[in-house]
Amino acid sequence: MKKNMKKLAVGFGVFVMAVGSLMGCSSLGSGGNEQGEILKELPEGFDKETVRKQAMEDIEIAQSKDYESWKSRFTKDLQSSLTEESYDSYLKILEKQGEFKEFGKCTYLGQIKDNKKYGGVIIVVKYEEGNVNYSLAYDEDMNLVSFTM
């Protein structure tokens, strides 16, 4: 169990770094729409149910062992930076979690950077061997800009 927690902590750290580098550094806040500010809610134009359903679908695609389908969910500019090796690493970690059970609780956040809006969700996924927190972020066209566990 300690190993799984360590992997989750590393995964969360990678998510924070990815969001920071992709969308710029900023302070956490709930008010205003300053460029790059991380919001404690989805920005205008994003719907919680739509984001939740898309996140569940993208996690299912990721679990399907179909690299090309998973890769196609990302923005075009990010697709070239994805590798089958990193996807295989994800699958190896996932195998250790056991059988998928159900999707759990969601937390939503957002960001506005350079007049572009991003919606994010942290969703708990329950597996046979424990829970995994997935962090997914989307552009306004609901293409993935971040996917971590």
Structural summary, described in words:
The protein has 149 residues and is α+β, with helices and mostly antiparallel strands. The protein has a single domain, classed as Nuclear Transport Factor 2, Chain: A (Roll), CATH 3.10.450.590. The chain contains five helices and five strands; from the N terminus they run αβααααββββ. It has helices at residues 2-23, 48-63, 67-72, 76-79, 84-95; strands spanning 37-39, 100-113, 116-127, 130-138, 144-148. It has a five-stranded antiparallel β-sheet with strand order 1-2-3-4-5, with helices on both faces. Strand 3 and strand 4 form a beta hairpin. The model is unreliable at 4-32 (pLDDT under 50).
**Strand percentage, roughly?**
25-35%
Oligomer: single chain
How many distinct beta strands? 5
Overall 3D form:
globular
Number of helices: 5
Known CATH architecture: Roll
Radius of gyration: 15 Å
Instruction: Give a quick account of the main beta sheet: strands, pairing sense, barrel closure.
Output: 5 strands, antiparallel
Output the strand order for the largest sheet: 1-2-3-4-5
Let me know the average pLDDT: 84
Features:
DUF3887, Nuclear Transport Factor 2, Chain: A, signal, 5-stranded antiparallel beta sheet, globular, alpha+beta, DUF3887 domain-containing protein, 5 strands, 149 residues
